[in-house]
Amino acid sequence: MKRFIESHNGKDYDIVIIGGGITGAAVGYEAASRGLSVALVEKGDFGAATSAATSKLIHGGLRYLANFELGLVRESLRERRILENIAPNFVYPIPFIVPLYNNSKSNKWLLKPAMLIYDTLSYDKGFTWDRTKKIPLHCSLSRRKTLEIVPVVTFENLTGGIIFYDCSSIIPERLTLAFIKSAAKFGADVSNYAKVEDFTREQGKVTGVIVRDLLTGKTVELRGKMTINCGGPWADIILDIARGKPGSQHVRRSQGIHIITRKLTNKYVIGALTPDGRYCNIIPWRAHSLIGTTDREYTGDPDNYRVTREAIEDFIGEVNGSFGGRGLIQYSDIMYAYGGLRPLIDDETRDVVKTSRKYEIYDNEIDGLQGLVTVEGGKYTTSRNLAENVLKTVMKKWGTPYKNSVTAKRHLAGCEIKDIDAFIYSAKTANSDFNQSSMDYLARIYGTEFNNVMAIARRDKKYAAPLNADGEMPAQVLYAIKQEMACTLTDILLRRTGIGTLGNPGTEVLETIAEIASRELKWSAARVDNELEKAVKALSLPD
Fold first, then answer.
1. Whose CB has fewer CB within 10 Å in the chain, the N or C terminal residue?
2. pTM score, whole prediction
3. What's the CATH number where 209 sits?
4. 22 to 5, 136, 144: CA distances (angstroms)
């Protein structure tokens, strides 16, 4: 992929998309796959904000049953299955254990009926292209068995447990990138580090945007029949730019943080209620535990959001209170912490925990902004279906016959795998001279692009030296820059590879990666120092 913004020649588009998170990426893919000309711009890196701040789960949303949001749960469960199909190397079934207690919130009389409804709403979970992706029905555990499997749960008043399955997304940053690549494969023009600074208008109609290339300083005009605002937590700020003044329509923002610690659970996700009645999960991930998430309202400038030590310590208190209050984790146990803002529909509820994760597709013509559509709310799991509904809205506005979507019926770019077990076996067999667990990991995160990465590693031994316990290697750095539009050190560390997603990998690794990047991207010595400084800051815990 190449940043089209650097060589834009005045081409007009059917659709201009603002935002390169999972929502914008899915809308771009949906539009391009229908034969529409698409330009997608993202002011940072693809999937760098909300889409990277997830619990790495693709789930139906069991807790939404408490709000009787059956439609949202059914949509999420259907989309969970679709993502298993179209992204088989990224999305996998994972077992959850929910402990049952003799209380009013987590007892079997409440949760067993909920699980029966959950199983019923996911009636098509067995219709997977790959038989290994089939999800079984829930089952019950005795008190003794629950404690045996997950001893970290609170044992006071424990009566048993329930095992059910949802899915994990092993590297959602690359799953978002797969949607971007799929859009580009169908002809979409995409660019990161391209910030919308204004809108163009003719006779009161929005006709496109003015975009600044943040890497070169160049400004270009992108003209489109329809502009779609997929700005997530920045959607209302983008609308203010379109209006030329602050408006009354605001996005409600919820801040969520996650922490990574030593391994606390083996293959099971352990769920528990926090003291304020919110679910918290301990999730097995890359031989560590990922714990999340918080759900608190954020009212500041989204550009200024940062994870603070205070927020982490508050969350540690919640985690320890949720799992028996036995000092399960301390601040010194944390290897890495990350966070982000979720856009929510403001449904007048006082508590963001109870605010719906539904989405809205808003035609801004109502506000006098003809030619502009804004997407608000939503969740990662349902983004593909959201995109399909966005295109229905656009086609209806244009009076164009609606074409059936193909995005649920074909693999994402780089995910064209019919049998994941056979694919992994083949990758390991063909590279038997490399560490086999590393080949397993790399084959999953690169899918059918795996051989391209390995070709670089075999071309020169210096690109094959392992950089971390997962066996990630310098070949990935070169591939990220040449093929995946990585422009900064943090792009490489956090969104093209997993080298930085367990925390700072150390000075030697950072300098090795920076040396390759500086050579390929022609960075000055000052730029290298600046990139290293930013990377260390991004990968460090707050003081």
1. C
2. 0.96
3. 3.50.50.60
4. 20, 28, 42
